[in-house]
Amino acid sequence: MWDLPAVNSFLPLIVVGLVSGSVYSLAALGLVLTYKTSGIFNFAHGIVAALGAFAFYELRDRHGMPWPIAFVLCVVVVGPMLGVILERLTRGLAGAPTATKIVATLGVLVGVQQLLIIRYGAATLAFPGFLPARRVRIASVNVEVGQLIVMAAVLGAAVGLSLFFRLSRLGRAMRGVVDDPSLLALTGTDPVVVRRWAWCIGAAFASASGVLLATSVGLDAAVLTLLVVQAFGAAAVGLFTSLPLTYAGGLAVGIGAALSTKYVGSISWLSGLPASLPFVVLFTVLIAAPKRRLVQVAPERARRVTATRQLGAGTKRAGLAVAGVVIVLIPAVVDTKLITYTQAFVYVIVFLSLALLERTSGQISLAHLGFAAVGASTFSRLTTAGTPWLVAVLVSALVAVPVGALVAIPAIRLSGLHLALATFGFGLLLERLVFQTSLMFGGGDSVPAPRPSIAQGDVAYYYVVVAFVAAAIALVVVVHRSRLGRFLRAMADAPVALATYGTSVIAVKVAVFCISAFLAGLAGALLGPVVGRAAPQSFGAFPSLLLVVVLALQGRAGEYRAAFGAAIALTIIPAYVTNDSLLEWFPVMFGVGAIAVALLEGRDESAQAGGRLATAAARRIGRSPIAARLAEAGAR
Amino acid sequence: MTADALHVRGLRIVFGGLVAVDGVDLDVPVGRLTGLIGPNGAGKTTTFNACTGLVRPTEGIVTLFGRDITLTSPPARARLGLGRTFQRMELYDRLTVEENVALGREANFAGRRALGLLWGTRAERAEITQARDEAIELCGLGGLRGQRCGVLSTGQRRLVELARALAGDFRILLLDEPSSGLDVRETEAFGRILRAAVEDRGAGILLVEHDMALVTSVCEYVYVLDFGRLIAEGALADVTSSPAVRTAYLGTEVA
Questions:
Q1: Does A504 contact B75 at a Cβ distance shorter than 8 Å?
Q2: What domain count does chain A have?
Q3: Alpha-carbon distance A451 to A453, whole Å?
Q4: What range does the domain containing A389 cover?
């Protein structure tokens, strides 16, 4: 038999875990439902939750509405309204490549999160609980009535949703709509209506989970957004498709996190584990699940080719010359803003490295600053230990290479959405579990990062960074022109062909991740000395998402122009905005811009695929099956 | 079994509960154009995938030039001299015709020496250029060299895929419905290119094809698949007169 004190000590934790796990389940169920039905994995699911919580706050705390009415309004009106908006927004993305879909929902995440911060401030607002706190004693544990209600309600929602999905007409239509919307349309059901229902239900679930989460963590847009990201781990347990397993996954993640708070409490390097357990689960499932079980709902589609305008060689040379002169003259012109320019050039290297992965090779990395963080922390340790400056920079970049090879492991097994999720999980893990350890930043706010002894001044260090940018560009140019560069572009378009013609795609992926990590690690080492110290929060998972969004804003520009454009948008333009309230709007603009770029691209893709006709026909199909079939036939 | 051929013995492939290929034996010797025909869903492409390593057979073995390659990776098979094209064309859409064709040879060099993945030697580059220009010439793609593949028509894309396969250093080529989407004139040109590849270069070709005119004009030996089983094999005339084949595939059109 178990001895009683031990049981007594972990039963309450299980209750706590079941309650928080139920809330994760609720969020995850909504996420899986919309993903299954629309093929869009909503990275902004957490934002819906946060909006639900803030709506509840407005209604109850600011307008004095009784909580039951406020709660019902949030779940039945606010959530579904957001669902309708999201469905409308993502409808045009059906034929777009996975990367475009991801960028669109990331744009929503970044933009709306900032809107909430502008409206309500960045500080956490008090959010009193509303469910009955009276305790009842069940099997020697005191349980709040409110906790029981949450557990029972989520269980009811999970069972109800599963039954609905299996038994009802609309539920069955939801299962059909991803596989073949036009076939569904032929049976007289409008796929748009079916998808809209799924988004409404999913958003209602998210909204409810947001309100419930806020009662335990307070009202904070960033925290709520990330807490619902924990639902990604639960969804992974259900392999992003099974509703019952997703529910079970949420509970397991909740219980695991609660129990681990007790058992890792004394081990300092594991202190981040409870909060990051969902990401451990997410990453592990993606690495370990049998590949055939991990099927992406909407099939992967490579980017289509458009005729791009090529600049003439003369124009190009002239442009390069002008750019060179400008770069050399910048220190004489910009005065106090020089540090910003130095920083921008470091980001040029970061974006070059990201573009090499995303634009050239068709891979996705949502943890790119993780490589930079490795470079930055290694650099600090090496210089503190007295390593010569240049050696420290190069070794730091090299240390990031094995980390790149590590991230190549999921890239070998996965592509598209699953790769994005695995890298996202990896980035969060690195941030939560490793950043604070003595391996990296060691728990402080920042670590020292000196400039080289020959370039202590701002102007001198600017030129040092410019030299590294030139070297990085040279490296990328060499890669592009080499055999590897051809393989990278070939892999992005047709990996199967490359393999059956004799080149191991695995080797190509490992190579590009290593080179990309080297460049990002180099940038990480160079970034700290700009201001003299390197701070872990510059390298977190959220800034990594922002990088992807800002790079996407560059549209179809080539790798080099995109890298410069993104660095300018991220650092230089905001530095010239002196109005603080306007500055606050920058992330919102990035978000809106990313959504716009994604939608434009989605439109181009379907237009090129002859989809404009097909879409129009599909819309008509929804209304009148036979007429539309004819219209479609006529269009061909 | 001979050392100068691709042999498939007792191939059986099961997906879940579906038996896609059931006990298939094939011989594809070099220097011969062999046909593989059968209705949609007969298991032709699955057989190809097992030969090139994209699908692992449930049972059976595949040998190439006397070596058992049943469990060899796709790139390693290519380096042994086995090439293929795809029914759903797999071209590098952002690259030009020239680059696509050149990659047919270049991809073959990647694993041959240390750092072969990163850059080529002068000798390799010369060989690649020569193979590329010959293949482009043979397929009549000279006018399209600088075009990106993503903007070409289906017929042109089929030719680029064939040129890429011919540029590779392959002694056995598996062509998966290479003429679908081509018009009559293009198909005739296609037949000439295939015969030239076999007669002048001594390649062995296994051709999956629905266009019976093309099969009749080029194939010396034909296998017929239906529901994953071989229902006939032999010279074309013998096969087409077989009653089983008539009912399964050719129907009454031939009569």
A1: yes
A2: 2
A3: 6
A4: 317-576
